[in-house]
Specification:
The protein is of the alpha+beta class. The protein is 37% helix and 27% strand. A hairpin with a 4-residue loop joins strand 4 and strand 5.
Length: 302
């Protein structure tokens, strides 16, 4: 067995440690400067209620008569904005699904046999729209509530690899899984399952069907979905209170639970931006009766 030795004389541990400490101190100083920027006039609170969940996004508002500390618009900042837009789109869909669907509803994956593969995204869209119309007609004929749905098209056409893949994911309130599978005309596999919420509702499922594609993904929603309830309030939080939460002097749970009766604290995250001063706080809460129902179900399983 070959033995390896480390020449400790080539490493100045004190210097490495000092550099790390200096870097952390610089980061902490920059963080404090971002928190205590005097151009921040107040903090705005955006509250979103979707189904059993309540979310709060708290962010700074600046004095528009003064210049705001921003980085120059570079390729990196454009990529950051692109990634932010993607995250916001996912959040919007998570909230829509949590606000409109329950464990009584279903989700499914539908694929095509090779000879029926759509040649384009537009063709795949038309093909799945026909399927939606069949589902709607069946609901109307059998006197079920109007169909509510969210569906995703995943389209991959890699010419170099000679690989083509098209399939759809759908979340809907259609009442019969077997009938839904029978109404699919694309051939190949069709697999439906009952929805099953976890501690974050259906967030995990939405992130799965919107995972980074090798090709192109688009999602479509029915027009009859209930929109999340969004309210915006200024001056609900002082700069001092937000700074105390971000610095860890007080906990987010101790602040938010008394403010929102009937909801229990679930999780929180705080951060500062490299592009703007101020702190950002995100809170997610869940209805108390939902937690109690989960405890009762767990006790019955035991």
């Amino acid at each position: 067995m070959r033995k390896y030795t480390l020449d400790t004389q080539k490493y100045d541990y004190d210097e490495i440690y000092a550099n790390e400490v200096e870097q952390k101190e610089a980061e902490y100083a920059a963080r404090l400067q971002a928190l205590y920027d005097t151009r921040i006039t107040h903090y705005r609170t955006k509250t979103i209620k979707s189904g059993k969940f309540l979310e709060c996004e708290v962010y700074p508002i600046w004095n528009t008569n003064t210049s705001i500390s921003r980085a120059k618009r570079t390729h990196e900042s454009r990529n950051v904005q692109k990634e932010l837009n993607k995250k916001n789109a996912i959040k919007r869909l998570i909230r829509l699904v949590n606000a409109n669907f329950t464990d009584d509803d279903i989700w499914g994956t539908f694929t095509y046999e090779t000879k029926r593969l759509p040649k384009s995204i537009e063709e795949a869209q038309k093909e799945f729209a026909k399927f939606i119309r069949r589902l709607k007609y069946w609901c109307s004929k059998h006197e079920y509530p109007p169909l509510k749905y969210v569906y995703v098209i995943e389209f991959e056409d890699d010419v170099e690899k000679g690989k083509k893949r098209v399939h759809h994911h759908i979340i809907c309130n259609f009442p019969d899984r077997d009938v839904a599978e029978e109404l699919w005309r694309g051939g190949a596999r069709r697999h439906t399952r009952r929805l099953q919420a976890d501690n974050d509702g259906y967030e995990g499922l939405v992130r799965y069907i919107l995972k980074d594609p090798k090709g192109t993904k688009r999602y479509v929603t029915s027009k009859n979905l209930q929109q999340p309830q969004i309210t915006i309030a200024d001056y609900k939080f002082t700069r001092r209170k937000i700074n105390a939460i971000v610095s860890g002097k007080i906990t987010a749970q101790s602040v938010f639970e008394p403010m929102y009766k009937g909801y229990a604290f679930h999780r929180a995250s705080t951060y500062t931006s490299d592009y703007c001063s101020g702190a950002y706080v995100y809170i997610k809460m869940v209805r108390l009766e939902t937690l109690q129902a989960r405890k009762n179900n767990a006790n019955r399983r035991e």
